Amino acid sequence: MPKKPQVPLKSLTRGLLRATWHKQNLYNIFKKGDEAFRANLTEYQQRWKAKKETRAYHGEHLTERQWQGIFNPRLSSVANRFNDQKAVDIPAAMDLYAPIERRLDVAMFRSFFASSPKQAREFVARGHVKVNGQRTRHSRYPLQPGDVFTVDPDCVLRAVGRSKPSKEFSSKVDESQAESFKEFLEQCEEDPEGMFQAKYRPLSVDGSYEPERLYREVRKMAVQHTTKRIEQIKSESFDLSSLEEQASEVIEEYRRSYGDSSTVSGEYEDVNAAATAVFAKDVSDKSSPEFIALKKLLVDKYRSSLVTELEEAVREFRAPSLMMTPHWYYAYLPEFCGSDMPWQTGEYGLQDPSKSYFTPWTPRTFLAPFAILPHHIEISFKTCTAVYLRDPVTRDGHTEVISPLPLIFHEEAYRFYVRRRK
User: Tell me, what DSSP letter sits at residue 359?
Assistant: First the structure.
């Protein structure tokens, strides 16, 4: 008999809510209604439907036999007898799945240490989790009040952060960004004032558009980038491999500008003359002392001219005048900030390729709707440690069992299981 194809857990067709931060699950939450209680359904069908909906979110990895083994018909609740205000109903049925909240994998999911109980079980199985200082590989471990569990920080960063892009995808994004950035610089050169307003006016959401204040910030950023670039150029040391690479870049640049037919003119007073001398040399013997010295002179002249240009830009941006200068976009030029893409270091999402998540670390998308901290767990995000304080309970108008489904679903599901046990 052929094996029945397995339906994905986050199926948009079935529309069941799952304990995960996936965007498809968020869409299912958005479109979820009270279809379980249509008028044409019998009372048993309504209870079975409610059981199906709630079990899909609470412990979908448990079989019905396993769940009924830990099911407790006596629900825990706390009533405030000293409340002088009007009595509020206690949503006791929300405590139906409280026994599942004691499991280590579910507690990790509630503590924002994993994107789903399934991922939490993966971390536990690989030995990245400790309970009370002891490494455990049992995700079903029942936590007791006072238990402390710790997760490897790299696992938490991978769970809460964006996924690591592939090398091919990162290269495509970098090419697209570089092309857009090149067009941006060309437009800044043509219309510096208009591009300044187009770039910084949308950022002034906290008040009125203040070009003087924003321009001061841009000037400050330009001075910082340019000063850092000057120090970097002056501190660069020479070795044979780096000299070869730097000289080749300068030679190619001037080859495109002046061609191979340039001739030596006078002493090597500027970069053009030094590059012309390199063109005239026999490049077949690149290891000769004379050719290496000429390349070193070429790089020295190029560095000197670039430092002079950068220092003039620093003086311009440090001037007391607040008049708009057409050179405001110098803060973003590659030769000033030292990068073709000053907004990032390294390839897109791969600043540190050794990590298993997006670097520099950024939180994953669609995380905010699921950002609900539990009351029965004390969490320390700095140390990736949490303390299981107590079993979740219900109180006046409040429940500590987090669920996207309304109270009526849990009430009908509770009636379903209570009747089955009789």
Answer: B
Same domain, yes or no: 48 and 111: no
Q: How far apart are CA 97 and CA 72, in angstroms?
A: 9
Domain count, the chain: 3
Q: Are 241 and 193 part of one and the same domain?
A: yes
| pLDDT tens column, 217-240 | 767 777 777 787 788 777 766 554
Decide if 168 is inside a domain. no
Q: What average pLDDT does this structure show over 40-67? A: 88
- Sign of the Cα pseudo-torsion (293, 296, 301, 302, in order): positive
Domain assignment present for 12? no
Neighbours of 180 (CB within 10 A): 9
Length of the chain: 422
- Average pLDDT, integer, range 190-201: 70
Q: Tokens 């009351």 label which residue?
A: 375
**CB burial of residue 167 (10 Å; 0-12, 13-18, 19+):** exposed
337-342: long-range contacts, CB 8 A cutoff, minimum separation 24: 337/225, 337/226, 337/229, 338/225, 338/228, 338/229, 338/232, 340/178, 340/181, 341/174, 341/177, 341/178, 341/181, 342/225
CA 334 and chain centroid, separation: 26
pTM > 0.85: no
The sign one gets for the Cα dihedral 99, 100, 104, 106 is: negative
Q: Two tokens at 357?
A: 């998540």
Confidence band (pLDDT; 50, 70, 90) for 130?
very high
Q: What is the pLDDT of residue 157?
A: 93
Residue 3, domain member (yes or no): no
C-alpha distance from residue 181 to each of 167, 170, 185, 293, 325 (Å): 21, 16, 6, 37, 20
Calculate mean pLDDT across residues 152-162.
93
How far CA 285 is from CA of 70, 277, 282, in Å, comes to 82, 15, 7
Give a yes or no: residue 11 inside a domain: no
